[in-house]
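Figure caption, in words: inputs first, then the predicted bound structure.
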Amino acid sequence: MSVINILDSAVYNMIAAGEVVENPASIVKELVENSIDAGAKNISVSIEDGGIKSICVIDDGEGMDQDDLKRSILPHATSKICAADDLKTISTLGFRGEALSSIASVSEMEIKSKHFLCDIAYGLKVKGGQILDFAPTALSKGTSITISKLFYNTPARYKFLKTSKTEENNVTQTVMDLILSNSNVAFRYYIDKKLALSSPGAGLLEAIKSVYNQNICDNLVETDYTYQKYRVFGYIGKPSSQAIKHNRNYQTLIINGRIIKDFTLSSVIQNAYGDTLMKRSFPVFVLEVVMPFEIVDVNVHPGKKEVRFASGCKINAALYNAVKDTLNKIINQKAQELSFLRHIDSKEINKYDNEKQSLLNKMLDEYANDTVQTNQKQKIDEISSRLNNLSHISPKIVQDKTRLKEENLFIGDMAESYRIDYKIVGQLFDTYILIEYDDNLYLIDQHAAHEKLLYDEYMKKIAYDKPDVQELMIAYLYENKKYAEVLLKHTDTLSKMGFEIEDFGNNIIKITAVPMEFINLDFEIFFDDLGELFQHEIDDISKISEIKELVAKKACRNAIKGGRKLSEDDIKYIMESFFQKGAPLQCPHGRPVTIKLSKTEIEKMFGRIQ
Ligand code: ADP
Ligand code: MG
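Bound structure (adenosine-5'-diphosphate present):
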C-alpha cells in the first residue's frame, strides 16, 4: 500500500509558510524586499498591534499587470529567476517565489497594483490562499499589500506569536535593517498609525541618522576600502567615542545588499579595533561589502539572513583590513594634528622669545651706555611699550591682556635687577640657601622664599583675573560636618580664586577644579584649614580681598608644606626671582625669609676687626 502522498499546494504552502513567515517581522522583510526588487524609491510600512492585527506595505515600484498579480500568489511564482543557473548570480533580494503564496495561505491579504505601463490598477483579495475577489481598483502607481488575520487558520502557529510589544520591536528592528541596507530608498514607518521612523533615502549617513541619532553620526568615520575583488564601505565608530557601545545592537553588516547576522564577521571587525577597545565594548558600524555574487551562496537560509562563502573567500581579510586601514588613518591624522600644533607652538614661542630677548639686550645696552642716565621708569615704560608691539608675533601667547601685563612687569623688574651679581655659596641643612652678594652673606629659608614667591605670583593672578585652573580628572569629595556649610558660603570667592566647589549633599563638598599651582595640595588639610579660617577668623563674607589674601596664604603654605624637596633648578629659579623681585624679607606668615650677615659683622665675630 502506498504511503507517500503528494501534498496539495494549499497544504504545502501552509508548511512552507513556517519557513518564510515566522512572525510579522519576517513578513515585513519579504514585502519590503519585493518593493525594492520592483524598483521602489518610496516605501511606507504600517503595523497595528505589533503586526498581528495588520501589516501594510505601500510602494511606488513598477507594479504588476493583472496577469502577474493573479500569478504572484501561486507557489514558486517568481519573476526573478527562470532556471537553476540563475541562482549563481542572483542580485535581487527575492527569488524563491514563496513569500506571497506562503503569506496568502495563512492570512487575509489584499494586493492592489498598477503596472507602470498599464492604465488600470487591479485589486486582489485572498483568504487562506483562496481568491475571494479580483477586480479593477483605484491606485495611481506601485503596489499596496495589506495583511490581516495572521495565522487565523493555523492556531498552533498563532500561539507561537509573542506579545504585541515584542513583535512590534522585532518589526522595528527589521525596518531599521532595511533602512540601513537600502539607504537610497525613502522609508516611512508607522506603528499604530503614528510615524515612528522616517528616512529620506539620501545615502547611508542620513539613513544612520534616521535609525540612530545625530550624536552617533558625529562619532563615525567613513570607510571605503577595496581589497582584491571586494569593496568594503560604510561607517565605523571612532575609538573612545560615543559610537562605542556596551552591546552589539549597533552593528550592521550588509553583503551584496543583504543584511547578514554573522558572529564570526563581527568578531573580525572587533579584532581589527584591537587595543583601542575596552573590554565588553563594541563599535557601532554599518558596513557594506560588495563582492562577486558567485563567491557567496545566499540560498542557505529561508529568511536569507545567513550566507555561505565559497572556499577561498577572502571576506575576513577584506573586512579586517578595511577597518584597520580606517583606524590607522584616524590615528595618523590625530598624530599629525598634534605635531602640527606643537610645531606651531614651539615655532611661535621661539620667535617670540628671540624677539623679546634681542629687544631686551638692545635696551639694556642702550641703558648701560646711556650717559645722560634717562629716568629709569621712563626706560622701563619704553621697554614695555615696545614689547606690547610684539604681540602680533604670537597672538596665541600674548593675546591675554593680563598675561601681557604680567610679562611686561616681569621684564621691567628684570631690567632693574639685571646687573645683580650674586654667588650661590651652597645649601645648609637642606633648608637654607647661602648667598654671597655685595659683601654680605644671606641665609635664605628656601621654603619660605618659595612660598613667598608663589604667594606673590598667585595674588597677582587673582588680582587681574581668575588663575589658570586644572580640572580634576576625578572630582575630590571632601566630607566635613563642621565646615561644609561655612565653606559653601564662599563658593563664589573660591571660584574667583580658581577653586571650583559644589554642594554634593550630606555635608560633602565636591571639588572639581583647582588653580594650576595647587594641583598637588592635600585637599583634606587645606579645606580643614579653610573651614577653620572661615569659622573663626572671617565673620563678614563681603570682605573679599581679605578672604582672598587669607585663602592664598593657606594655599601657598600647604603647597610648600606638601611640596617636594627642592632641586638645584628650583633653587636657581627661586634665586633668580628672588633677586629680580627684590628680596622678600618676610614670608606671607610673617616669619623671616632672609637673614643678612655683613662681611663686617662676620669679621667682627672672628675678631679680625673691632
Ligand atoms: P520572489 O520575491 O521570491 O520572486 P514573492 O512570492 O515574494 O517571490 O513574489 C512573487 C512575485 O510577485 C515576484 O517575483 C514579483 O514579480 C511579484 N511582486 C511581489 N511583490 C511585488 C511588488 N511590491 N511590486 C511588484 N511586483 C511584486
Ligand atoms: Mg519576494
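The pocket of magnesium ion (ligand 2) is lined by residues 30, 33-34, 94, 99 (CB under 6 Å).
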